[in-house]
Amino acid sequence: MSERTLPPGVIGLHALPSDHHDGPWDSMIVPPGTKERLLGAALLVLRQGRRLTGLSGAPHGLIMLAGPPGTGKTTLAQGLAQAAALKVAERGATTLVEVDPHAFPSDMLGESQRAVSKLFLDTLPELAARRPHTVVLIDEVEALAVRRSSASFETNPVDVHRATDAVLSGLDQLRARCPNLVLVATTNFVDAVDEAVLSRADLVMSTTLPGDEVIEQIVASSLAELAGQWPALGPLAGDADLRAELAKGLRGLDGRRVRKTILAALTLRTEVALDPNLLTAEDLRRATQPED
Ligand SMILES: Nc1ncnc2c1ncn2[C@@H]1O[C@H](COP(=O)(O)OP(=O)(O)OP(=O)(O)O)[C@@H](O)[C@H]1O
Ligand SMILES: [Mg+2]
């Protein structure tokens, strides 16, 4: 279910679990233990948040995913919301709130600060009151929580500093007011995120470029998905030697590029684009060989 009128700064609002959100979590191929740690950090706050608020050093409910472009941060964050919502479903539904970090203008002095404060002090608590659990996704959080120590006053308006201050005080107040709320933030530039914001994260998880084995598994997953749509591709998808060969040509690429390159094999011949059932191993080899 997506709810129609969105508050300022919010670009998506969903009730989870929902079949519609199945997929991302399972499609991500990550080192062993990664998903368990992410789920653990989210579930502790969603389920035990209220009791934990009394502890010194109580969690902020902030999970940070940091890594290069195309390494699956957004996909993992979205998948985590659904995976966690499934685990707590017997205690009630979860609201997924997607925040647009670029929606907070900075041309008028004090405006971003006010908008950020409103997000943390009004909008999120109001949304969190709707259901027992809430997951807030802030993609590209460096836009909102600019590192103050490196943001120069010449190139960055004072407003940027104030907005980061507002994020910090917002995080602290949110922890007290909404103990069952988890924030999942992603960033390409962990060095651009304010240190005090990072310090409040309960878990900072790094995503990295895939190694040979992971690339091979992403190729397998991409081909299996294609075979799901075009059944004649079943044998290609099942060919382990071919997958290993293709993976070698894809070394160094991020997960997004790997998936796109496999898809690009469908575009090399017009008849294949018109009928993907005609895709051959040779098309896949051509697409994955680095050009000289
Ligand atoms: N380790 C992986 N396993 C499977 N698929 C992956 C992996 N890494 C990336 N992908 C795929 O790449 C695509 C892009 O991922 P996503 O948008 O989550 O990356 P991102 O890290 O958020 O990138 P950006 O920093 O550019 O926003 C998705 O389709 C995702 O499934
Ligand atoms: Mg992303």
From TrEMBL:
Q: Which Pfam families does the entry link to?
A: AAA (PF00004)
Annotated SMART domains: AAA
State the source organism's domain of life. Bacteria
Which SUPFAM superfamilies does the record cross-reference, listed alphabetically? P-loop containing nucleoside triphosphate hydrolases (SSF52540)
| InterPro entries, per database record | AAA+_ATPase (IPR003593), ATPase_AAA_core (IPR003959), ATPase_AAA_CS (IPR003960), P-loop_NTPase (IPR027417), Pch2-like (IPR044539)
AAA+ ATPase domain residues are: 59-211
Similarity section: Belongs to the AAA ATPase family.
According to UniProt, the name of this protein is AAA family ATPase
This protein's species is: Amycolatopsis rhabdoformis
